[in-house]
Each structure stands twice: as C-alpha cells, then as structure tokens.
Amino acid sequence: MTFGDSTRSVRAGSASPGQPGQPFLPGPVFAAPYHLDPVAGPQPGVDGYGRTDNPTLRALESAIGDLEGGECVAFSSGMAAVSAVLLALLRPGDTVVVPADGYFLARAFAQESLPGVRVLLAPTAGPYPSFDGVQLVLLETPANPGLDVCDIASLAAQAHEAGALVAVDNTTPTPLGQRPLELGADLSVASASKALTGHSDLVLGYVCATSSELAGRLRTWRARTGGVPGPFEAWLAHRSLGTLDLRLRRQSENAAAVAELLAGRPEVSSVRWPGRPADPAYRIASRQMRRIPGIVTFTLPSKAHVDAFLTTSELIAAATSFGGLHSSADRRAQWGDDAPEGLVRLSCGIEDTQDLVADVTAALDAAARTAA
Ligand code: PLP
After folding, report:
1. Helix (H) or strand (E) holding 56
2. Ligand 1 mean position to 34 CA, how many Å?
3. What are the pLDDT digits (tens) for 234-293?
4. Angstrom distances, CA of residue 28 to CA of 15, 36, 51, 229, 334
C-alpha cells in the first residue's frame, strides 16, 4: 500500500509492527564503548563503539532514507554533510560546479578549502557552464536566500552525460517538498537543522545516496573524520519528523498569504516565493516540487527600514536559520552574504495565517511611518 506524506512521516524509521511493551520511538542510547564479548571480541552486527555504531542514529537514518528514497548517512551538521560530499568525492585536479547564489558557507568552503580543485560558480537559474571535465555538480534548489530554482532532471542528465556526479542541497524543500534522487541526482544533501526537524532546537545534517557504494564512501569518511551526530540530537530529530507534513502545510499556506501581501506593498522592491504564479521560478517549481516551502525573500529600501520592521513585529523573531515553528527573519547582509542591505529572508512559522498577515501588515505600516 502506498501511504501519503503524513502517514510516511509518522511511520518513518519505526519498527513495524510495534512490539508489545516497547515505546513507539525508543529513547536515545547513550554509549561510547559497548560491552564486548570478553573472549570473542568484536562481532559483526554487534555494536562496539559510538563513533560508528548507534541504534538511535540508525533509526533516524532509516527514517530519512525512507523519505528521501535512498540510503542515508547522518552528520553532525549540514556543513559537515556538505563538506563530506566535497572532500570525500573530489581530488586535486578535479573540477566542481557550485551554486553562485546558494548557501554562502558551502560556496566559501568549496572556494577556500579544496586545494587543487577547480571551482566553477553557476547561478541556480543558469546559465550553466559545460560539464565536460567536471567531476561533481552541486545544486541548491530553491537556492538560499534568493529562491531561484533549477531543473534537477535536465541538469542531472547533462552532468551524467559528461560523467559527473550530481548532489542537490535539499535543505529548504525537505524530502516532502522535493525528491532529488527520483529526479536523477546521485546525492541529496541537507541541513536537518531547518524545516526537516523544525523546532529550532538542534543542529544536524545528512546525505542520502541512491548507490550503496557512494553511501559507503561517505560512511567511511564520517567514521574517519568523526562528524557523527550525538544520540540525543538523532532521537530529537526522529521525534520531530512525525509532524513534518503538518508543519510544512501551514508554513506554505502562511508563505502564500505573506508573499501576496508583500507583492502589493509599494516599499517592497522584490518578492520571491516560487509558489506565486508571477515568480520567475514558478514554472519549474510547480513541475518539480511536491510543495513550496514557507520561505519568502523580499527587499525593503534600507537596513533602517528592516530594523523598524523587525522591532515592531510581535510574531517575527530576528534569527538566522529557518524552517522552525516560529516565524523568523534574517537580514542576510549582516552575515557578509553578498545581498542588498534591505534583503530579508522571512521564514513563515506555523502561527495562524490571519495573525501572521495582520502582524506583518502592522509592522510594515509602522516601518513605513518611521521611514517617512
Ligand atoms: N545548506 C543550506 C541551504 C543551508 O541554509 C545551511 C545553513 O543555513 C546549510 C546547508 C548548513 O547547515 P548547518 O547550519 O546545519 O550546518
């Protein structure tokens, strides 16, 4: 039987059927070493040491793997996952294509920490360079923070034709919003610190692969470099997955309403939300994505205008990161991101839509009065 998204989220990684007397989700197992058989020593299939063996982490990986449709290797953060892909798969002399407008630390890492690797930057919406001589194409769609979208299936076909692997940063959509492996990517990599876990209370990342060989290389890389998630984070992440569908639905509804509101405001010079028919990414997004995330990026006239907006709003917290229960906003230029001073990435939470719309309207009105 094929289940819907919410059923899959609730059941992901759970033992089925449940065992009498056992909890729905077993608690975290805290262990550095485990007892070994004093005579036989390490045995296949018996946990020995926490850097490689942990049942709580395996359950989470099984859950995320179910949702992404691949084999999952979890990492201690999204950056640990992104850097593992780049470092484990590239060698000096190789060429990698990375997004010019994606998460800025991934770009900075590629440019500054891959000695001997040629790094080509490509805007998410294109044009892309020829993939001849390229070993790895890293895509991020929708790109953070500008929310441009690229056609994963078409780029994956072109990259494979040239012999390159394709990794997609799936942080913003989550596997319920987009399934890169089904669209032809070899790897789906993400920060699970955002909407996937969605409660703004943990830092985590993962890579999912269609090939066991690739997943095995990343698992070996993780065991050797040590960026393994702790059991508490793994358990907390798994506990949060069950509500993913519900959270994303409300976030997306809120984003639709807020994007419409922003589009009608004279002080807002650009609004990006790939679910709006007027958005340049709408056509590809509606074909490729299963749902549109709750992130809206817009531009106010100045830093002062953003400051007034954020200090007046009751519901929008000033915070970096995104995808949580609470609405939050981040003025990206404050992090050295190459963004206009007034560009705001607004992450819509799960508040009631009418409350959020009323709050954004009041805060924009107040900011406009302050600026006048
Ligand atoms: N990828 C994207 C698109 C992100 O937005 C982020 C963080 O904001 C990362 C990767 C890195 O994730 P983490 O902060 O969990 O290391």
Report:
1. helix 55-68
2. 32
3. 999 999 999 999 999 999 999 999 999 999 999 999 999 999 999 999 999 999 999 999
4. 15, 20, 15, 12, 37
Class at the top of the CATH hierarchy for domain 5-241: alpha beta
Which residue, judged by its Cα, is nearest atom 13 of ligand 1? 78
Residue 320: the pLDDT is 94
262, containing H or E segment:
helix 244-263
Q: Kindly list the domain boundaries of the chain, sorted by start residue.
A: 5-241, 244-371
**Which amino acid is present at 121?**
L
Report whether residue 193 contacts ligand 1, using a CB cutoff of 6 Å. yes
244-371: which CATH number, 2.60.40.420, 3.90.1150.10, 3.40.50.1110, 1.20.210.10? 3.90.1150.10
Amino acid found at 241: L
CA distances from 89 to 76, 94, 97, 360 (A): 19, 10, 13, 44
Higher pLDDT, 370 or 235: 235
Secondary structure of residue 206 in the 3-state scheme: strand
Of the candidates 136, 63, 48, which has an alpha carbon nearest to the alpha carbon of residue 99?
Answer: 136
Q: What's the whole-number average pLDDT of the chain?
A: 97
Answer yes or no: is the C-beta of 78 below 6 A from any ligand 1 atom: yes
Q: Which of 79, 197, 321 to mutate to test the pocket of ligand 1 (most atoms within 8 A of CB)?
A: 79
Ligand 1: which residue has its CA nearest to atom 14? 78
For a ligand 1 pocket test, name from 148, 178, 194 the mutation site with the most ligand atoms within 8 angstroms of its C-beta. 194
With a 6 Å cutoff on the Cβ, whether 205 touches ligand 1 is: yes
Cα 17 to averaged position of ligand 1 atoms, centre (Å): 35
Per-residue confidence (pLDDT) for residue 371, from 0 to 100: 79
Please report, as a single letter, which amino acid is at residue 27.
G
Nearest Cα residue to atom 2 of ligand 1: 103
pTM above 0.85, yes or no: yes
- Cβ-based neighbours of 321, under 8 Å, separated by 6 or more: 193, 194, 200, 328, 330, 347
